[in-house]
Amino acid sequence: METSRSALRARLSRASGALMLAVAAALALFSFVIAPAGAATTDDGDPYRVSGNVQLDGNPLEGVELTVDGPGGSQEVATDANGQWVVMVPEKNTTYTVTLNEDTLPEGIAVVDETDDTPNVKEAEMGPGGRVTVNFFIGEGERHVTSFVDQLVQRLVNGVNFGLMLALAAVGLSLVYGTTGISNFAHSELVTFGAVVTSALASGLLPVPIWLAIPAAIIISAAFGLALDVILWRPLRRKGVGVVQLMIVSIGLSLALRYIYQFFIGGGTTQLPFADAPKIPLFGAVSLSVIDMVSIGISIVVIVGFALWLTYSRLGKATRAISDNPSLAAASGIDVDFVVRIVWVVGAGLAGLAGILYAYYRPGIKWDMGAQILLLIFAAVTLGGLGTAFGALVGALIIGVIVEVSSLWIPADLRFAGALVVLILILLFRPQGILGRRERIG
Amino acid sequence: MDFLQILSNAGASLLAPATLAYALAALGLAVQFGFTGLLNMGVAGFMAIGAYGYAISILQFDFPWWLAALTGLAASAVFALILGIPALRLRGDYLAIVTIAAAEVVRLLFLTSAFDDVTGSADGLSGYHESFRGANPIPPGTYGFGPWTYNQTDWWVRIMGLIVLALGVVAVWRLMSSPWGRVIKGIREDEDAVRSLGKNVFSYKLQALVIGGLLMAAGGIVYAMERNVNSGVYVTSTTFFIYTALLLGGAATVFGPLVGSLIFWVLQTLLSNLLPALSQLLPFMTQIQASTLRFILTGVALMLLVIFRPQGIFGNKKELTFVK
């Protein structure tokens, strides 16, 4: 076993040089295949508008609430005194879903349309003009209501999907923390990396089919993790740099990488192929697109595979041993440096996969997409117990469900805040997390 | 390419309210992180509370500007207490995660459309300047020379900012050479040793968190006095930039935050003017890409600083317990 491991390490160090070249080549390719997006849009002042007018027999209705879902997230709006509403959105050439909240219509009034099962929900196609109008037929009639249980089930399913994706990102962060003590703020950029590379491969000068682009992007992500360890983290470990310093280094790295992505892909949002796959109604109010189902399937398979690796393989056991007690692990003959390198490679690969799935879940690829969920990943890791991989899995599922389900009660734009409050409360009252042990917080 | 204009813009940023705001926030961070060793990653949250406290109390309650500023400061002190009382018993990196999450919650609360009437959600707040500008004793006109030529309103904002900054620097300098400052530095070096001397470590940490928070809120208010208040300013990147400015000057120094912020903003302005101008000569870069470059350089600079000169320009390496 000893010989096979050192042989593997020798292979790895030879391979690392080649991989570095591959990464450099990929980055160079990347800079050519992606045409810089024209105007960089900023977060404030989205350029395109979805608007409409809510009237009953020619009289404007004030205070009717509508929700617009699509790229850029969910936005809520109410009609003004003239019955008009406007929402500014970040993207064109895509579809937005406008939902009229019938509870805010006057008594006995509803959205009526005989031909439609859900007349209060409309799809709006945002064309190249950047403007679209959505109007509803309003009159006396039966309201279409989705029961609370149906809504809850739909949110739970979405939450599990989101949670599985978070879990892929969280286990890497957790393992890195467990083995090296780094609170890696640049982990979110590894998430973005997977999505950006997939997009570069799938829509570059030499378009690669998506089924090939995704595995290739995951391998390139893993190689990127290896490169970071070789160039940055291992030399710093050797230098004996403190944990807080490493954390600030990771913040600098996060800033640099984030703006490198913006440098290449611009400030706008781009879509991966098949991101607009239609939703298929399954049961109750639950409808998922084929992409959603594949995404859930891939997450489960990868997570189970990872869990088996961590539990039964020699390297997995060594990883857990180092998380428990690095000095004891080193003393009992485990090559800590080698295991840490494997952790970076595996963690970055999983983060890259999470990024691809997140690009479909959002939907869209943006330079700061990873940074938007970094604190949710931290929340998942802390909730489960910093440094425990299985804790991160449980924590991620809980956070995913909290984020989705909480928007039944709180405004949609505050749902991330809800998860962050959970993070704060967990750290204050049970800092070791659900599966962690007390001694960790020492 | 007009080098004189670029140099002039860079020079003007020396007195810009953004520079003064960063200097105040970095000074507050020096008290918390440099002197006490508290890893507060929620700087942007404290600044946001100061700025929104100032603007909302004018717009909603018609407060005069000085009372509004005091309200903003008081709000940040309350935030420091609410955050600090439970969180200060946590270890360094845990405290960082709690504070960064709390600052994000604060930002999301200001951003959500649920409180649009009070916070202006994504549009932010504006139109609260009347009281402050009405108190301006400077007669209308344009004063100054070279890059530092401003009208009476711009001077009024800058003079107030400079006064607050000067008061802050003197206060921190006096505090740090007082017995209180020695206890604070003792906590940074060895908490248990200070505790064994009978000092209430928790109470000292809380005081440091509040004092730092007040300075950060003052920075937010100075920034709000010049323009509008928008939640897009108070993102986590702002916190990271203030860390960069602080570490540049020296975390455990009084003048470090000041000099660090000056250098940070002069370089930022210089690069934001120079890089797009250079991109005309370099065919592989568009103007927009060139202006992104300075943020990439900021991130790289932060990494190099922490690795190779964590004590900053003025600091003493022995004063940094976070460096092993």
Give your account of this protein's structure.
The complex is a heterodimer of chains A (442) and B (324). Chain A folds into two domains: 322 residues, Orthogonal Bundle (ABC transporter involved in vitamin B12 uptake, BtuC), CATH 1.10.3470; 98 residues, Immunoglobulins (Immunoglobulin-like), CATH 2.60.40.10. Chain A is built from twelve helices and 13 strands. In chain A, the strands form five sheets. A four-stranded antiparallel β-sheet of chain A has the order 5-4-7-9, with no helix packed on it. In chain A, strand 4 and strand 5 form a beta hairpin. About 7% of the residues of chain A have low confidence. Chain B is mainly α and 324 residues long. Chain B has one domain: ABC transporter involved in vitamin B12 uptake, BtuC (Orthogonal Bundle). Chain B contains 14 helices and two strands. Chain B is globular and about 60 Å long. The model of chain B has no long low-confidence stretch (mean pLDDT 91). Chains A and B meet through strand 5, helix 5, helix 10 and helix 12 of A and helix 5, helix 12 and helix 14 of B.
Short description:
Chain A is an alpha+beta fold and 442 residues long.
> What is the correct CATH architecture of chain B?
Orthogonal Bundle
Q: Major sheet of chain A: size, sense and barrel closure?
A: 4 strands, antiparallel
DSSP E strands of chain A, number: 13
Anisotropy-based shape of chain B = globular
Poorly predicted tracts of residues of chain B? none
CATH C-level name of chain B? Mainly Alpha
User: Which geometry of chain A do the CA atoms define?
Assistant: elongated
Rg over C-alpha atoms of chain B, rounded to the nearest angstrom: 20 Å
**Discrete helix count of chain A:** 12
Instruction: Tell me the CATH architecture of the largest domain in chain A.
Output: Orthogonal Bundle
